[in-house]
Each structure stands twice: as structure tokens, then as C-alpha cells.
Amino acid sequence: MDHLEVWYAQRCVERIMRLRGRNAHYINYRHIISWLVRKPGAFEHYRYRDDLFPTSHFRIAYDMLKERSPRRGHKEYLKILHVAALESESGTDEALAYLIDRGEEITASKVYDLIVSGQEQVSAHEVHIEEVDLGVYDELLTGGVK
Questions:
Q1: Tens digit of pLDDT for each residue in 24-73?
Q2: Would you say residue 129 lies in a domain?
Q3: Could you report the per-residue pLDDT of 72-90, keeping only the tens digit for each?
Q4: Is residue 72 part of a domain?
Q5: Which of 27, 86, 95, 104 is most buried, by the most CB atoms less than 10 A from its CB?
Q6: How far is Cα 60 from Cα 83, in angstroms, rounded to an integer?
Q7: What is the distance, to the nearest Å, from the Cα of residue 56 to the centroid of all Cα atoms in its chain?
Q8: Domain that holds residue 79
Q9: Model confidence at 138: pLDDT above 70
């Protein structure tokens, strides 16, 4: 009642939350990306274009591509989205974050190379915090440390 399940070969391949109300929609870019890659001009005026940004890194990459090349940026973005559909959305997201953090040029081939290289991209925003020894505070409370 709250969701729709798509089953194929006795396996649930997709689960979609039920949308209520008028004008509700759900667009999965994987369903239309091969069509959009063949007809990239349609993306510019696509009514549900905002639904084709799976994460904020995808949106940032699109904005950077459009700023760098207003006439061809959307084509490169669609190639990146196609890589995400064929390879890995999370891997593409990590690769985009890596390229954005380093201020490098974003291209579909760079994203693909980062994904297939298998190396883990470390974000500049990742912080490692050492584990705290709470025993020091116990000693303070019992008067053990001067």
C-alpha cells in the first residue's frame, strides 16, 4: 500500500515509494539515460531535469561543466550520468567529489578511470579523530592525577 515493488525472476529488482497527490512523479535516471545520451538536446529543456541529479556532487559537476562550456556541458554531464548507470552511482559520486575537491577538470573519462582504477578516493573533508581514553577523566574525578 505504501510502495510499489517490481519483481523479475522471483527477485525484487526495484522498490518505489508510493507518491500521493497531484503532479507527483518519480524519475529514475537509469530508465532514460541511454535515450538522453543519444538525444542530449532534450536534457536542456527536460521538465524533470532536477530529478536527474542523484546527489549534490552530480549537481555541482553539472554546474561546473555548464560554466566551463555552456554549449557542451550538458552532453558531458549525460556521459557522466551514463557511467553512473553502467558502473556505479556511489563510485561516480566519490569520483566527482574527488575531482571537485581538487579543482580538477571534470570529464566522463576521468570519472570512469577513477572508478575502474579501484583506488579509494580520499575526500579533503574526511577527518580522522583519535579515540579518546576516558580513563583519564576517571582519574581526574578520583583525584589520581595532579
A1: 888 888 888 998 888 888 888 888 888 899 999 999 999 999 999 998 99
A2: no
A3: 999 999 999 999 999 989 9
A4: yes
A5: 95
A6: 17
A7: 7
A8: 29-123
A9: yes
